[in-house]
């Protein structure tokens, strides 16, 4: 069994992700601990939030107080609901969170039935619960649970891969090939993306890009991929590396298969609705572009914007760390396309959200002026009181990056590197103005 521990600052996104699984019939609340009960046994996200509210209000400046843990037995293990409940209780107790409020969700949307645990890592007095040697302790608890319940042991090779900390490529530190390999061999195992553009958006967070190459071999057309490292300006800074150097999973054919598989998997997934709702919710809550980006990060969503030399936005991609999915803006809906965000940045036509009975529609400001205004209502106001201005422009792009890949714990090297790059760009812009 493998445990994956994620930390974040936005409770709403985590609860929404799990609640949508329940609403779609692909999940259920299996167990609760110190959660306020309801008369009918139905739990809404707003009701669940109240059980965590005292802990978050008391929080003493822990930046990422939300815990999102998954326990993943081998697909061949047949674990009953009672066993999952016992395993969750033992895991939380031995990790030091047994007295915390927590929820256990069972997910059945994939062949590997597993559980997600949502909790907080600060106690009632707002003090952070120690996470010292957390990975080592977590692995030990998993081994104990395997022995106790007769589960199939996690292979050492798989476990070592999961424990890897992924770093953005540093083109100046040498051994670029190995740096690129450590990323491109793993991304398709964890993330769903449907096009090369979406794949490159994800790669760009690691200072990598790929390009399709075409040619002929023995008179027959051939297609392939090459990879490059990027510098702090997003420009190629290395010679090309053929995909074959990194194994089949990084190659053209396997990625095409991954695009197809992701497309089919996401047809029935609730991830699209979850991501779109969160983006629309944030659009409704702010009129400032930079704050919009910061709030997205706090909700576990990275945004990659592509512009041409004139500054026109021609592409926008959202990377959701909660569902591990990548979405071109127009795939989420024409209201979230690059053109809409280009009108915001370059023409001052801010996207706005109009609430309807069944969904939300994003409108430009000129369109919305013809409609009655509606007051937005945030069910999680106590979280919104944490000012996003506490996060600077650089960190807003990649805050919470530790949740991008499983077990990416420790210092957020990706966050710091990306922040440094953006600060350098900002300084250069200031000098040129």
From TrEMBL:
Residues 422-433 have a biased composition (Basic residues). It comes from the Bacteria. Residues 408-433 are annotated as: Disordered. Residues 32-151 form the MobA/VirD2-like nuclease domain. InterPro entries: Endonuclease_MobA/VirD2. This is Relaxase.
């Amino acid at each position: 069994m493998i445990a994956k521990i994620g930390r974040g600052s936005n409770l709403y996104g985590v609860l929404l992700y799990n609640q949508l699984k329940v609403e779609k019939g692909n999940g259920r609340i299996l167990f609760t601990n110190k959660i306020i009960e309801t008369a009918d046994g139905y739990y809404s996200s707003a009701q669940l939030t109240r059980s965590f509210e005292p802990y978050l209000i008391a929080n003493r400046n822990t930046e990422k107080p939300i815990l999102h843990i998954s326990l993943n037995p081998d697909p061949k293990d047949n674990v009953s609901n009672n066993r999952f409940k016992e395993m969750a209780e033992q895991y939380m107790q031995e990790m030091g969170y047994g007295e915390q409020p927590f929820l256990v969700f069972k997910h059945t949307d994939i062949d590997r039935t597993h559980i997600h645990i949502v909790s907080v890592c600060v106690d009632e007095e707002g003090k952070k619960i120690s996470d010292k040697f957390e990975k080592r302790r977590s692995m030990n608890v998993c081994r104990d649970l395997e022995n106790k319940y007769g589960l199939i042991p996690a292979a050492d090779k798989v476990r070592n891969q999961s424990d890897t900390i992924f770093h953005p490529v540093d083109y100046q530190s040498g051994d670029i090939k190995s740096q690129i390999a450590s990323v491109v061999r793993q991304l398709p195992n964890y993330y769903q993306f449907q096009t090369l553009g979406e794949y490159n958006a994800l790669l760009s967070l690691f200072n990598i890009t790929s390009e399709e190459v075409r040619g002929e071999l023995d008179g027959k057309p051939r297609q392939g991929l090459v990879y490059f490292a990027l510098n702090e300006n997003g420009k190629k800074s290395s010679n090309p590396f053929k995909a074959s150097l990194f194994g089949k999973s990084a190659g053209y054919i396997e990625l095409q298969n991954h695009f197809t598989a992701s497309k089919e998997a996401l047809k029935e997934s609730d991830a699209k609705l979850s991501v779109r709702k969160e983006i629309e919710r944030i659009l409704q809550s702010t009129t400032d572009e930079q704050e919009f980006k910061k709030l997205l990060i706090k909700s576990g969503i990275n945004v990659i914007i592509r512009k041409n030399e004139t500054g026109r936005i021609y592409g926008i991609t959202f990377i959701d760390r909660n569902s591990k999915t990548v979405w071109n803006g127009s795939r989420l809906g024409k209201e979230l396309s690059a053109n809409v965000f280009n009108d915001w940045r370059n023409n001052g036509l801010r996207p706005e959200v109009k609430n309807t009975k069944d969904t939300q529609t994003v409108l430009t400001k000129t369109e919305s002026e013809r409609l009655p205004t509606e007051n937005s209502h945030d069910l999680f106001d106590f979280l919104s009181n944490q000012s996003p201005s506490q996060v600077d422009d650089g960190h807003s792009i990649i805050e919470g990056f530790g949740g991008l890949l499983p077990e990416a714990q420790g210092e957020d090297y990706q966050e710091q590197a990306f922040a440094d790059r953006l600060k350098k760009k900002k300084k250069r812009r200031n000098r040129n103005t």
